[in-house]
């Protein structure tokens, strides 16, 4: 009773794409799998996959052998894909999701089990986001502290690039899983993202319902790699340039990570995104960051909203990390790309290093832009990989109902050890 996605996800590269030929098998999208979290009410979760063009597909949500709802659709020609939007479901679970494809007299059934409903967050950016739980202070105790978090489910996307927007992921490193020592601390810069995990864990402590975390990040990458062609064009970003800094260790080719690691999620219903990136733009298209960053937010919001048939909110919360500039004293300019990232909520606090009021004004116009972490301990562990100590949580309290104090305190425990620098 193993769904094909499970087999594909753990071991084999997912080779199927939207333009796959007509004999493509009946399957769920790569990240519709056992142990996943689907977005809870008031949104409707999207379930999609591939099948044989013209076939009828029935998706059934069951709990304890009882049918909760059924949705019927058919497989589209050309893309060989099918998609249904479930009715809104309250947080909780577990559920089983079944999909049946009927073509003539042939009847194929796929099943995934232990599916929960809650909030689904996408975590993206460069090394500060990719850094794993095994790399933080007190890693041993953080890694063993999983029993209470079995309904925080995690997925980690493989490092992949593509020249065109992919409909589905090419590969995942960690398919939807419950947190364990092994999959939270798999290795350095593999999975699971420490910031993503700590964020989700404290959401769960506060909200007391399931949380799904998707980590899709790559160290040493500029914003251009995570931006669609549309948003780069809107900002007049010059054609591919050479990345000058030694710090750029990941791919810098434009749009390749958007295409392979983010776009495949645009049909999924999500709660929001958290983002930690900027260092790789210190010496690369830095003066354009005040356009490329807001443009990325706008483009992701629009694309995710459209792709989920309006289920992902048009202005979903977008949280980002603001580094305190003095933290970067040794690399005078390193905080610069972050400096434009100022929001009204935090003005008093960031006055000192949020110097360009014109840039501030641009970001202020974006709705529901959330300030995730604005300040760090002045202690310098590393000029690049900041220590997540004593952050001031701004913004998120407004959108997800978390008390500022709670999250600020909790993230205190997530301080990267940084001995590898
Ligand atoms: C398809 O198979 C499932 C069980 O695997 C069954 O419940 C369903 O009735 C079948 N549908 C048709 C149309 O045969
Ligand atoms: C991973 O990083 C930690 C420090 O954060 C270091 O002690 C350990 O040796 C590294 N492991 C590997 C396999 O590189
Ligand atoms: C962005 O910053 C650059 C350099 O500081 C400036 O010339 C430009 O006017 C800014 N763009 C906007 C839209 O404010
Ligand atoms: C995903 O969304 C896009 C944009 O709305 C749409 O063209 C595509 O068909 C959707 N995918 C599926 C599987 O329905
Ligand atoms: C690590 O654990 C010790 C003992 O529980 C605690 O005192 C310390 O504050 C922790 N460090 C961090 C950075 O959380």
The main β sheet shows up as: 11 strands, mixed
Q: Just give the CATH class of the largest domain.
A: Alpha Beta
Shape: globular
What would you give as the CATH superfamily of the largest domain? SGNH hydrolase
**What is the first-to-last residue Cα distance?**
46 Å
Spell out which ligands are present: 2-acetamido-2-deoxy-beta-D-glucopyranose
Q: What number of structural domains do the residues give?
A: 2
Give the helix proportion (percent range): 10-25%
Would you identify the regions where 5 or more consecutive residues have pLDDT less than 50?
1-24, 323-361, 370-421
Radius of gyration, in angstroms, nearest whole number: 21 Å
Mean pLDDT: 74
The number of helical segments is 12
Proportion of strand residues: 15-25%
Total strand segments? 14
Question: Secondary-structure element order, as H and E?
Answer: HEEEEEEEEHHEEHHEHHEHEHHEHH
CATH topology of the largest domain: Rossmann fold
Structural category is: alpha/beta
CATH architecture of the largest domain: 3-Layer(aba) Sandwich
